[in-house]
Amino acid sequence: MFSPQGPTLRELTVQALSSVERGYDLLAPKFDHTPFRTPDRILEATGEALRGRGPSGGLFEAGLDVCCGTGAGIGVLRSLCRERVVGVDFSTGMLTAARQAVAGPPRTPAVTYLRADARALPFTAAFDLAVTFGALGHFLPAERAAVFAGVHRALRPGGIFAFPIAAPPPPRSALYWTLLGFDAVMRVRNLVWRPPFVMYYRTSSLGAVRADLRAAGFAVEVMPVRGAARRPDGSPGWGLVVARKP
């Protein structure tokens, strides 16, 4: 699962026994060499699905990457936005890695990074596109309302909040039991160890996420994406949630 440049078992153990913020500060230099980084095929498919949906000749003016990590999603926003792109994360280490990844001569759109908590985003009507990749599992179900409300507030009228979401694996699959076991281990860990490390794979079902987005004021659709892997029953393995602010 990990390349030779990735973290050691000891480093992963130290991370898992830290807070979410501290854990990602420690993991940041090697994060892109782990399977936790969103695969390029998903990033590319997301960009393709959103292309042409912007208000300015199919492009968006300003884009926001919520929980940007090391900046994997910044390239998606740069391909879709023409004015500016902002990446937000609360891990200083991840933001440092993201800034290093875009080091070099400035180009359009400009990219800036900001340390902020996604549950209290400091923006109002500043963007017409927001994305997030692989971050929802770091929020307890009760916290999603604050995240979605903050994104809704940050978007201009007509703005889009988009993110990929995986279809649940069938109960007879190995992946189903792997994710179930992982979540169970994390719950036990958080019962007996402080500070908590919030990372759950099974708390962000499409139904729950759709309900929370609608409660925040979004109109929600789920778009199919080209090249999505198929499940045994032939249905797509993931889709793109597109939530629009009226």
UniProtKB/TrEMBL annotation:
It comes from the Bacteria. One of its GO terms (biological process) is methylation. GO terms for molecular function: methyltransferase activity. Keywords: Methyltransferase, Transferase, Ubiquinone. Residues 64-159 form the Methyltransferase domain. This is Ubiquinone/menaquinone biosynthesis methyltransferase. It comes from Streptomyces rimosus subsp. rimosus. The lineage of its organism: Bacteria, Bacillati, Actinomycetota, Actinomycetes, Kitasatosporales.
